[in-house]
Protein backbone atom coordinates (compact mmCIF):
# COMPACT_ATOMS: atom_id res chain seq x y z
CA UNK A 1 0.00 0.00 0.00
CA UNK A 2 1.00 3.62 -0.50
CA UNK A 3 2.82 4.56 2.71
CA UNK A 4 1.65 8.16 2.34
CA UNK A 5 -1.90 7.07 3.20
CA UNK A 6 -0.80 6.78 6.84
CA UNK A 7 -0.27 10.55 6.93
CA UNK A 8 -3.94 11.29 6.28
CA UNK A 9 -6.04 12.39 9.25
CA UNK A 10 -9.73 11.54 9.73
CA UNK A 11 -12.15 14.22 8.58
CA UNK A 12 -13.29 16.71 11.27
CA UNK A 13 -16.78 15.19 11.19
CA UNK A 14 -15.33 11.75 11.90
CA UNK A 15 -13.26 13.06 14.80
CA UNK A 16 -16.24 14.78 16.38
CA UNK A 17 -18.56 11.83 15.75
CA UNK A 18 -16.28 9.68 17.90
CA UNK A 19 -16.60 12.23 20.69
CA UNK A 20 -20.39 12.34 20.33
CA UNK A 21 -20.60 8.53 20.45
CA UNK A 22 -19.72 8.75 24.14
CA UNK A 23 -22.36 11.39 24.89
CA UNK A 24 -26.15 11.26 25.24
CA UNK A 25 -28.19 14.04 23.63
CA UNK A 26 -31.31 15.49 25.21
CA UNK A 27 -34.03 12.96 24.24
CA UNK A 28 -36.77 15.58 24.53
CA UNK A 29 -35.41 17.56 21.61
CA UNK A 30 -35.26 16.55 17.95
CA UNK A 31 -31.71 16.69 16.64
CA UNK A 32 -30.68 19.65 14.48
CA UNK A 33 -27.46 19.12 12.53
CA UNK A 34 -25.64 22.27 11.49
CA UNK A 35 -22.20 20.70 11.27
CA UNK A 36 -21.88 19.78 7.58
CA UNK A 37 -21.97 22.30 4.74
CA UNK A 38 -24.39 20.38 2.54
CA UNK A 39 -26.93 22.66 0.79
CA UNK A 40 -30.48 21.62 1.61
CA UNK A 41 -32.57 24.06 -0.40
CA UNK A 42 -34.68 22.56 -3.18
CA UNK A 43 -33.01 21.96 -6.53
CA UNK A 44 -34.49 24.26 -9.22
CA UNK A 45 -37.01 22.61 -11.53
CA UNK A 46 -35.20 23.77 -14.66
CA UNK A 47 -32.18 21.72 -13.64
CA UNK A 48 -34.19 18.63 -12.71
CA UNK A 49 -36.14 18.86 -15.96
CA UNK A 50 -32.93 19.02 -17.96
CA UNK A 51 -31.54 15.98 -16.14
CA UNK A 52 -34.66 13.99 -16.98
CA UNK A 53 -34.76 15.14 -20.59
CA UNK A 54 -31.08 14.28 -21.10
CA UNK A 55 -31.09 10.81 -19.59
CA UNK A 56 -30.70 9.16 -23.01
CA UNK A 57 -27.31 10.83 -23.45
CA UNK A 58 -25.64 8.28 -21.18
CA UNK A 59 -25.51 5.81 -24.08
CA UNK A 60 -22.25 7.37 -25.26
CA UNK A 61 -18.85 7.92 -23.65
CA UNK A 62 -18.36 11.58 -22.69
CA UNK A 63 -15.16 13.42 -23.54
CA UNK A 64 -12.98 14.62 -20.67
CA UNK A 65 -13.03 18.16 -22.07
CA UNK A 66 -16.82 18.23 -21.94
CA UNK A 67 -19.30 19.47 -24.52
CA UNK A 68 -18.74 22.74 -26.30
CA UNK A 69 -22.18 23.86 -25.10
CA UNK A 70 -21.16 23.43 -21.48
CA UNK A 71 -17.80 25.12 -21.91
CA UNK A 72 -19.41 28.05 -23.73
CA UNK A 73 -22.00 28.47 -20.97
CA UNK A 74 -19.26 28.45 -18.31
CA UNK A 75 -17.15 30.94 -20.26
CA UNK A 76 -20.11 33.27 -20.67
CA UNK A 77 -20.94 33.01 -16.96
CA UNK A 78 -17.36 33.80 -15.94
CA UNK A 79 -17.37 36.84 -18.22
CA UNK A 80 -20.68 38.09 -16.78
CA UNK A 81 -19.97 37.32 -13.14
CA UNK A 82 -16.38 38.51 -12.90
CA UNK A 83 -16.39 41.21 -15.56
CA UNK A 84 -13.37 39.80 -17.34
CA UNK A 85 -12.59 39.88 -21.03
CA UNK A 86 -13.38 37.03 -23.38
CA UNK A 87 -12.74 33.57 -21.90
CA UNK A 88 -11.75 30.98 -24.50
CA UNK A 89 -13.97 27.90 -23.96
CA UNK A 90 -11.45 25.75 -25.84
CA UNK A 91 -8.37 26.56 -23.78
CA UNK A 92 -9.27 28.42 -20.57
CA UNK A 93 -12.16 26.35 -19.18
CA UNK A 94 -12.44 22.70 -18.18
CA UNK A 95 -15.50 21.03 -16.60
CA UNK A 96 -14.78 18.93 -13.49
CA UNK A 97 -16.79 16.61 -11.26
CA UNK A 98 -17.13 19.13 -8.45
CA UNK A 99 -14.38 21.23 -6.91
CA UNK A 100 -13.45 18.60 -4.33
CA UNK A 101 -12.04 16.04 -6.77
CA UNK A 102 -10.48 18.75 -8.91
CA UNK A 103 -8.72 20.44 -5.99
CA UNK A 104 -7.30 17.07 -5.00
CA UNK A 105 -6.25 16.05 -8.51
CA UNK A 106 -4.65 19.41 -9.25
CA UNK A 107 -1.94 18.90 -6.64
CA UNK A 108 -0.95 15.67 -8.37
CA UNK A 109 -0.39 17.68 -11.57
CA UNK A 110 1.52 20.61 -10.06
CA UNK A 111 3.84 18.64 -7.76
CA UNK A 112 6.60 16.59 -9.38
CA UNK A 113 8.12 13.42 -7.89
CA UNK A 114 11.55 14.73 -8.92
CA UNK A 115 11.32 17.77 -6.62
CA UNK A 116 13.28 17.29 -3.41
CA UNK A 117 11.16 19.76 -1.47
CA UNK A 118 7.52 20.35 -2.40
CA UNK A 119 5.83 22.89 -0.17
CA UNK A 120 2.12 23.61 -0.49
CA UNK A 121 0.79 26.62 1.41
CA UNK A 122 -2.81 26.72 2.60
CA UNK A 123 -5.05 28.73 4.97
CA UNK A 124 -5.59 27.57 8.54
CA UNK A 125 -8.41 26.65 9.34
CA UNK A 126 -8.85 24.94 6.00
CA UNK A 127 -10.72 22.49 3.80
CA UNK A 128 -8.99 19.20 4.53
CA UNK A 129 -8.78 18.20 0.85
CA UNK A 130 -5.90 20.68 0.49
CA UNK A 131 -3.84 18.83 3.08
CA UNK A 132 -4.74 15.36 1.83
CA UNK A 133 -3.91 16.25 -1.76
CA UNK A 134 -0.56 17.64 -0.67
CA UNK A 135 0.41 14.63 1.40
CA UNK A 136 -0.56 12.05 -1.23
CA UNK A 137 1.42 13.98 -3.85
CA UNK A 138 4.48 13.74 -1.60
CA UNK A 139 4.33 17.41 -0.64
CA UNK A 140 4.67 19.21 2.67
CA UNK A 141 1.79 21.41 3.89
CA UNK A 142 2.56 24.79 5.44
CA UNK A 143 -0.12 26.91 7.03
CA UNK A 144 -1.07 30.57 7.10
CA UNK A 145 -3.20 31.24 10.17
CA UNK A 146 -6.34 33.25 9.52
CA UNK A 147 -7.40 36.15 11.70
CA UNK A 148 -9.84 35.45 14.51
CA UNK A 149 -12.73 37.59 13.28
CA UNK A 150 -14.98 36.63 10.41
CA UNK A 151 -13.36 39.39 8.36
CA UNK A 152 -9.81 38.37 9.29
CA UNK A 153 -7.47 37.38 6.50
CA UNK A 154 -3.97 35.98 6.63
CA UNK A 155 -0.55 37.51 7.12
CA UNK A 156 1.81 36.35 4.37
CA UNK A 157 4.81 37.28 6.52
CA UNK A 158 4.07 34.27 8.76
CA UNK A 159 6.20 32.25 6.34
CA UNK A 160 9.83 33.16 5.72
CA UNK A 161 11.77 33.25 2.46
CA UNK A 162 13.08 29.71 2.99
CA UNK A 163 9.51 28.37 2.83
CA UNK A 164 8.49 30.53 -0.12
CA UNK A 165 11.58 29.39 -2.06
CA UNK A 166 10.32 25.79 -1.95
CA UNK A 167 6.62 26.55 -2.51
CA UNK A 168 5.07 24.98 -5.62
CA UNK A 169 1.38 25.53 -4.95
CA UNK A 170 -0.80 27.74 -2.76
CA UNK A 171 -4.46 27.05 -2.01
CA UNK A 172 -6.82 29.95 -1.45
CA UNK A 173 -10.41 29.58 -0.24
CA UNK A 174 -12.25 32.73 -1.28
CA UNK A 175 -14.82 33.30 0.20
CA UNK A 176 -13.29 31.41 3.07
CA UNK A 177 -14.43 28.26 4.80
CA UNK A 178 -15.10 28.57 7.73
CA UNK A 179 -14.72 32.31 8.37
CA UNK A 180 -16.46 33.73 5.28
CA UNK A 181 -13.56 36.15 4.72
CA UNK A 182 -13.31 37.64 1.21
CA UNK A 183 -9.93 38.72 -0.12
CA UNK A 184 -9.48 42.36 -1.12
CA UNK A 185 -7.71 43.66 -4.20
CA UNK A 186 -4.71 44.51 -2.02
CA UNK A 187 -4.68 40.93 -0.73
CA UNK A 188 -4.58 39.62 -4.28
CA UNK A 189 -1.88 42.09 -5.29
CA UNK A 190 0.38 40.84 -2.49
CA UNK A 191 -0.33 37.21 -3.36
CA UNK A 192 0.26 37.68 -7.08
CA UNK A 193 3.53 39.46 -6.32
CA UNK A 194 4.71 36.49 -4.25
CA UNK A 195 3.65 34.09 -7.00
CA UNK A 196 5.64 36.10 -9.53
CA UNK A 197 8.67 36.26 -7.25
CA UNK A 198 8.79 32.59 -6.27
CA UNK A 199 7.06 30.94 -9.21
CA UNK A 200 4.32 29.02 -7.41
CA UNK A 201 0.84 28.25 -8.74
CA UNK A 202 -2.28 29.68 -7.08
CA UNK A 203 -5.35 27.44 -6.80
CA UNK A 204 -8.32 29.61 -5.83
CA UNK A 205 -11.24 27.62 -4.41
CA UNK A 206 -14.30 29.80 -5.02
CA UNK A 207 -17.16 27.35 -4.45
CA UNK A 208 -18.89 29.79 -2.04
CA UNK A 209 -18.63 32.81 -4.33
CA UNK A 210 -22.37 32.99 -5.08
CA UNK A 211 -23.59 32.96 -1.47
CA UNK A 212 -23.41 36.61 -0.42
CA UNK A 213 -25.72 39.22 1.10
CA UNK A 214 -25.37 42.44 -0.86
CA UNK A 215 -26.52 42.10 -4.47
CA UNK A 216 -24.62 45.26 -5.37
CA UNK A 217 -21.29 43.95 -4.04
CA UNK A 218 -20.53 40.35 -5.03
CA UNK A 219 -17.27 38.93 -3.65
CA UNK A 220 -14.13 39.76 -5.58
CA UNK A 221 -12.73 36.69 -7.32
CA UNK A 222 -9.21 35.89 -8.46
CA UNK A 223 -10.02 36.42 -12.13
CA UNK A 224 -11.52 39.86 -11.49
CA UNK A 225 -8.55 40.79 -9.34
CA UNK A 226 -6.10 39.68 -12.02
CA UNK A 227 -7.80 41.84 -14.64
CA UNK A 228 -8.05 44.86 -12.35
CA UNK A 229 -4.32 44.52 -11.65
CA UNK A 230 -3.59 44.40 -15.41
CA UNK A 231 -2.22 40.87 -15.41
CA UNK A 232 -3.14 37.68 -17.25
CA UNK A 233 -4.06 34.34 -15.73
CA UNK A 234 -0.55 32.90 -15.70
CA UNK A 235 0.06 30.54 -12.74
CA UNK A 236 -3.57 30.97 -11.66
CA UNK A 237 -6.38 28.41 -11.58
CA UNK A 238 -9.87 29.12 -10.26
CA UNK A 239 -12.19 26.32 -9.08
CA UNK A 240 -15.96 26.83 -8.99
CA UNK A 241 -19.01 24.65 -8.49
CA UNK A 242 -22.78 24.42 -8.88
CA UNK A 243 -23.25 22.62 -5.55
CA UNK A 244 -23.83 25.69 -3.38
CA UNK A 245 -24.83 28.10 -6.13
CA UNK A 246 -27.61 25.91 -7.53
CA UNK A 247 -28.31 23.40 -4.72
CA UNK A 248 -27.10 20.37 -6.66
CA UNK A 249 -24.32 18.81 -4.54
CA UNK A 250 -25.23 15.36 -5.84
CA UNK A 251 -24.59 16.34 -9.46
CA UNK A 252 -20.87 16.82 -8.74
CA UNK A 253 -20.50 19.57 -11.30
CA UNK A 254 -17.98 22.38 -11.44
CA UNK A 255 -15.20 23.83 -13.55
CA UNK A 256 -11.66 25.18 -13.51
CA UNK A 257 -10.69 28.33 -15.35
CA UNK A 258 -7.38 30.11 -15.80
CA UNK A 259 -3.88 29.59 -17.16
CA UNK A 260 -4.04 27.90 -20.58
CA UNK A 261 -0.90 25.88 -19.99
CA UNK A 262 -2.19 24.59 -16.67
CA UNK A 263 -5.55 23.76 -18.25
CA UNK A 264 -3.81 21.80 -21.01
CA UNK A 265 -1.74 19.78 -18.55
CA UNK A 266 -4.71 19.22 -16.25
CA UNK A 267 -6.79 17.97 -19.19
CA UNK A 268 -4.09 15.46 -20.11
CA UNK A 269 -3.95 14.20 -16.52
CA UNK A 270 -7.74 13.92 -16.31
CA UNK A 271 -7.90 12.02 -19.59
CA UNK A 272 -5.76 9.30 -18.04
CA UNK A 273 -7.55 9.65 -14.71
CA UNK A 274 -10.93 8.85 -16.31
CA UNK A 275 -12.84 11.78 -14.87
CA UNK A 276 -15.23 12.82 -17.66
CA UNK A 277 -18.54 14.32 -16.55
CA UNK A 278 -21.79 12.42 -17.08
CA UNK A 279 -23.43 13.72 -20.32
CA UNK A 280 -26.81 14.25 -18.63
CA UNK A 281 -25.09 16.23 -15.87
CA UNK A 282 -23.32 18.27 -18.55
CA UNK A 283 -26.64 19.20 -20.13
CA UNK A 284 -28.20 20.14 -16.79
CA UNK A 285 -25.08 22.11 -15.85
CA UNK A 286 -25.34 24.10 -19.05
CA UNK A 287 -28.88 25.09 -18.08
CA UNK A 288 -27.76 25.99 -14.54
CA UNK A 289 -24.86 28.23 -15.58
CA UNK A 290 -27.15 30.05 -18.04
CA UNK A 291 -29.71 31.01 -15.39
CA UNK A 292 -29.30 33.55 -12.57
CA UNK A 293 -32.89 33.79 -11.36
CA UNK A 294 -32.67 30.70 -9.16
CA UNK A 295 -29.30 31.86 -7.81
CA UNK A 296 -30.69 35.18 -6.60
CA UNK A 297 -33.64 33.38 -5.02
CA UNK A 298 -31.21 31.06 -3.28
CA UNK A 299 -29.24 33.99 -1.87
CA UNK A 300 -32.49 35.48 -0.62
CA UNK A 301 -33.20 32.35 1.42
CA UNK A 302 -29.75 32.51 3.03
CA UNK A 303 -30.14 36.21 3.71
CA UNK A 304 -33.39 35.59 5.59
CA UNK A 305 -31.81 32.82 7.66
CA UNK A 306 -28.76 34.87 8.61
CA UNK A 307 -30.88 37.92 9.52
CA UNK A 308 -33.08 35.84 11.80
CA UNK A 309 -30.30 33.71 13.31
CA UNK A 310 -28.18 36.74 14.20
CA UNK A 311 -31.15 38.67 15.59
CA UNK A 312 -32.02 35.79 17.92
CA UNK A 313 -28.47 35.37 19.23
CA UNK A 314 -27.26 38.95 19.15
CA UNK A 315 -28.17 39.74 22.76
CA UNK A 316 -26.48 36.60 24.11
CA UNK A 317 -23.09 36.46 22.39
CA UNK A 318 -20.73 38.20 20.03
CA UNK A 319 -21.89 37.13 16.61
CA UNK A 320 -20.76 38.46 13.26
CA UNK A 321 -22.25 38.09 9.81
CA UNK A 322 -19.66 36.72 7.36
CA UNK A 323 -18.87 38.59 4.17
CA UNK A 324 -20.04 35.55 2.19
CA UNK A 325 -20.70 31.81 2.46
CA UNK A 326 -23.23 30.03 4.65
CA UNK A 327 -21.25 29.55 7.87
CA UNK A 328 -21.38 31.35 11.21
CA UNK A 329 -17.91 31.33 12.82
CA UNK A 330 -18.93 31.72 16.44
CA UNK A 331 -16.47 32.71 19.15
CA UNK A 332 -16.76 30.65 22.35
CA UNK A 333 -15.49 31.57 25.81
CA UNK A 334 -14.75 27.96 26.66
CA UNK A 335 -12.96 25.22 24.74
CA UNK A 336 -14.71 24.69 21.43
CA UNK A 337 -14.95 20.90 21.75
CA UNK A 338 -16.41 21.31 25.24
CA UNK A 339 -18.87 23.91 23.94
CA UNK A 340 -20.04 21.70 21.05
CA UNK A 341 -20.25 18.63 23.29
CA UNK A 342 -22.30 20.36 25.99
CA UNK A 343 -24.56 21.92 23.34
CA UNK A 344 -25.19 18.46 21.91
CA UNK A 345 -25.97 17.01 25.33
CA UNK A 346 -28.28 19.77 26.51
CA UNK A 347 -29.91 20.98 23.28
CA UNK A 348 -29.29 18.20 20.71
CA UNK A 349 -27.80 20.71 18.25
CA UNK A 350 -24.71 19.56 16.36
CA UNK A 351 -22.11 22.16 15.37
CA UNK A 352 -18.48 21.60 14.46
CA UNK A 353 -15.61 22.50 16.82
CA UNK A 354 -13.28 24.94 15.08
CA UNK A 355 -10.07 23.37 16.38
CA UNK A 356 -10.86 20.23 14.37
CA UNK A 357 -10.83 22.31 11.19
CA UNK A 358 -7.31 23.59 11.83
CA UNK A 359 -3.78 22.50 12.71
CA UNK A 360 -1.35 23.83 15.29
CA UNK A 361 0.88 26.31 13.46
CA UNK A 362 2.95 29.34 14.48
CA UNK A 363 2.28 28.50 18.12
CA UNK A 364 -1.51 28.38 17.91
CA UNK A 365 -4.54 26.56 16.60
CA UNK A 366 -6.54 29.40 14.98
CA UNK A 367 -9.77 27.39 15.12
CA UNK A 368 -9.63 27.03 18.89
CA UNK A 369 -12.51 28.55 20.87
CA UNK A 370 -14.70 28.77 17.78
CA UNK A 371 -17.46 26.61 16.37
CA UNK A 372 -18.64 26.47 12.78
CA UNK A 373 -22.39 26.61 12.28
CA UNK A 374 -23.69 25.75 8.79
CA UNK A 375 -26.99 27.52 8.10
CA UNK A 376 -28.03 25.05 5.43
CA UNK A 377 -31.31 23.73 6.88
CA UNK A 378 -34.71 25.37 6.43
CA UNK A 379 -35.19 28.72 8.17
CA UNK A 380 -37.58 27.24 10.72
CA UNK A 381 -34.99 24.70 11.79
CA UNK A 382 -32.17 27.28 11.87
CA UNK A 383 -34.36 29.56 14.01
CA UNK A 384 -35.04 26.70 16.40
CA UNK A 385 -31.31 25.98 16.60
CA UNK A 386 -30.61 29.65 17.34
CA UNK A 387 -33.17 29.63 20.16
CA UNK A 388 -31.59 26.51 21.66
CA UNK A 389 -28.08 27.95 21.39
CA UNK A 390 -29.33 31.14 23.05
CA UNK A 391 -30.84 29.10 25.89
CA UNK A 392 -27.56 27.22 26.23
CA UNK A 393 -25.46 30.40 26.36
CA UNK A 394 -27.84 32.26 28.67
CA UNK A 395 -27.62 29.34 31.09
CA UNK A 396 -23.98 30.30 31.63
CA UNK A 397 -22.10 27.73 29.55
CA UNK A 398 -19.93 30.41 27.90
3D architecture notes:
The chain is an alpha/beta fold. The protein has 2 domains: 144 residues, Alpha-Beta Complex (Aspartate Aminotransferase, domain 1); 236 residues, Aspartate Aminotransferase, domain 2 (3-Layer(aba) Sandwich), CATH 3.40.640.10. The chain contains 14 helices and 12 strands. The strands form 3 sheets. It has a 7-stranded mixed beta sheet with strand order 2-8-7-6-5-3-4, with helices on both faces. The protein has a 3-stranded antiparallel beta sheet with strand order 9-12-11. Helix 7 links the parallel strand 5 and strand 6. The radius of gyration is 21 Å and the shape is globular.
Helices and strands, with pairings:
Elements: H1 12-20, E1 32-33, H2 45-53, H3 68-82, E2 93-96, H4 98-110, E3 119-124, H5 128-136, E4 140-145, H6 161-165, E5 167-173, H7 185-198, E6 201-205, H8 222-228, E7 236-241, H9 243-246, E8 254-258, H10 260-273, H11 279-289, H12 293-313, E9 327-331, H13 336-347, E10 349-350, E11 352-353, E12 370-374, H14 379-397
Parallel strand pairs: 1-10, 3-4, 3-5, 5-6, 6-7
Antiparallel strand pairs: 2-8, 7-8, 9-12, 11-12
- The CATH architecture designation of the largest domain is 3-Layer(aba) Sandwich
Helix fraction, binned, reads 40-55%
| Cα-based radius of gyration, to the nearest Å | 21 Å
- Derived structural class: alpha/beta
Shape: globular
**How many domains, in number, for the residues?**
2
Determine the number of helices (DSSP H or I, runs of at least 4 residues): 14
Give a quick rundown of the structure.
This protein is of the alpha/beta class. The protein is about 40% helix and about 15% strand. The longest helix is centred in the last third of the chain and has 21 residues.
Amino acid sequence: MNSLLSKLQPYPFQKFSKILDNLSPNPEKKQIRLSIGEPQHETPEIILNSLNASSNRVAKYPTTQGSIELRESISAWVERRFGVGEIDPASEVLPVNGTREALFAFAQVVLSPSDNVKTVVMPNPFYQIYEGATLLAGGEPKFLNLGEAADGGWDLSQLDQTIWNTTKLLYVCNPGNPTGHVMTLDDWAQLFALSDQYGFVIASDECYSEIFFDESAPPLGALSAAQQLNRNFEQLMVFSSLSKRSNVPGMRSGFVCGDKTLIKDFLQYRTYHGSAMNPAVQAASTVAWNDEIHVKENRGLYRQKFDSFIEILNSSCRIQRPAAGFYIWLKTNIDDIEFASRLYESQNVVVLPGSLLARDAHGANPGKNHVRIALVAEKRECDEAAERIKTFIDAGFV
